[in-house]
Amino acid sequence: MAPPDHRTEPPHMAPETATLLGFLDFQRQTLEWKCADLEPWQLATRAVPTSELTLLGMIRHLAAVEVGWLVGFCDIPPDIWPDVVRDRDEQFRVDPGTVTAADVASAWATWRAAAAGVHRVVARVSLDASDRPWGRDDVYSLRWILVHLVEEYARHNGHADLIREALDGVTGE
Predict the structure, then answer these.
(1) Which Pfam family, an example, fits this chain (predicted)?
(2) Cβ(17)–Cβ(26) under 8 Å?
(3) At 1, is the pLDDT very low, low, confident or very high (cuts 50, 70, 90)?
(4) Which of 32, 49, 64, 130 could anchor a disulfide with 84, C-beta 3.0 to 4.6 Å?
(5) Is 44 helix (H, G, I), strand (E, B) or coil?
């Protein structure tokens, strides 16, 4: 699998929105690339014995992060969002001895549905729109949330690079 092309233009929209969504999509593509061609047990292998961090756990966690920041945002109907693992510890807790291809497929499907939900919000809401995301006390703009999602992915993609290198020697860009 080739590394993602960060020059890919997102759908036609305002330049600032396209830039933010383009960087978020690039980070998503990078995660997919880091996880490509691995067996379920590899995706469920811990980064280090003292940590629950796994590639499969990151997929589940990032789906929950995207949903968590935008569910209910600006009165977008909640039915656009997939059901995600909400417990942070449970997101990362996977066992390489029992994980199946179906577990992996389910995690990717949920993750893709969460990304599609974000695209739907971006298509409907201005970057300057602000709201209190579900379960949060403070008000955030869509712009702030998208920048935060890019940061969250970038940080976890660094983790993914280290895990992937430990698994099979493959390193990133």
Answers:
(1) MST
(2) no
(3) low
(4) 64
(5) coil
Tokens of 48: 């280090």
What does the mean pLDDT of the chain come to?
Answer: 90
Q: What domains does the chain contain, in order, with CATH numbers?
A: 21-168 (1.20.120.450)
Is residue 69 a contact partner of residue 96, using CB atoms and an 8 Å limit? no
**What is the DSSP track for 74-96?**
GG--GGGSPP----HHHHH---T
Residue that the structure tokens 């949330």 belong to: 145
Burial class (CB in 10 A: 0-12, 13-18, 19+), 55: buried
Looking up tokens 């061609």 gives 37
Statement: the pTM of the whole predicted model exceeds 0.85: yes
Are 153 and 32 contacting, i.e. CB atoms less than 8 angstroms apart?
no
Judged on CB neighbours under 10 Å (0-12, 13-18, 19+), 171 is: exposed
How far are the Cα atoms of 3, 10, 23 from residue 7, in angstroms, in the given order? Answer: 12, 9, 9
Q: Which residues touch 159 (CB under 8 Å, ≥6 apart)? A: 47, 53, 58
